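User: Please run a holo structure prediction.
Assistant: Happy to. Please share the sequence and the ligand.
User: Here you go; the ligand is FE2/S2 (inorganic) cluster.
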Amino acid sequence: MTKFLVDKAANIPQDHLRNVTLGGKEILIVNQKGRYLALNNICSHAGAELHEGLLENNELVCPWHGAKWNIETGELVWFTQDLENLESYNVIVENDRVFVEI
Ligand code: FES
């Protein structure tokens, strides 16, 4: 597992959906009420970039067909068919910098 620097914590505002490429993977970073979370940014249905979707409380809504994902775990909350859950990653905050382990 490798630890990648995302950015300074101050540069990731609350409720903003941010995409970064780390270790060749597209990663979604969210600051949810001061907690930083990281998931695979690519919807497992048809490949939408999830940072273009919406954050509704604890759920991430896909911009293309509306699949809903648990923002903390990457588990599918709702869709018309079964989908693979999104991979979630460990986030570390050190000295006001946000890192993701991949
Ligand atoms: S691409 Fe996300 S629900 Fe279809």
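The mean pLDDT is 97.
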